[in-house]
Amino acid sequence: MELTDRWKxxxxxxxxxxxxxxxxxxxxxxxSKSDITKLLNAYKRQYVLMLALTVITPLFALLNxxxxxxxxxxxxxxxxxxxxxxxxxxKYARFxxxxxxxxxxxxxxxxxxxxxxxxxxxCNFVAFYTPVVFLGSLLATLTYGGKRLATxxxxxxxxxxxxxxxxxxxxxxxxxxxxxxSRQCVALMAKxxxxxxxxxxx
Length: 202
Description:
This protein is an all-alpha fold. The relative contact order is 0.14.
């Protein structure tokens, strides 16, 4: 934020600052382009990680294919990864990485719209999917073998399936929220917002 503070502190009515103004503007644009690259690369790494989890998760079902409840819980986790991967794939397919050689303000705006759309979807999806996983796990254990709620309470395996599948989804959700609330991403977004406001000043 130092560049923005220096920019606002300048007295642009004084002609002796004319060269400094141009110099600061060029420096501000250069720093903004670097921050855009860092922010988009951070989200690209998240996308690659989600794709890797989508590929790897179904393999865990092979560890105990004879237990339908275990396979079901892995399937719930895999569907979570699959939906997020699908969403991110669509977003990246439609997103045109901004040309940093053109207007810096437009590049900042396009980048912020892109990452905020991802953040909004992920937060809403995690809030929706966690109870779905819990209820889905409970339903699976209820219907498999004609079990009733009283039976499940006294069945350690059923309780384990419900707890583990729900815990893993909650952990994944918190991991995503930590990423979205990471110091690097939050700081970069705030910094770019400041730069955008400064660049759009008359």
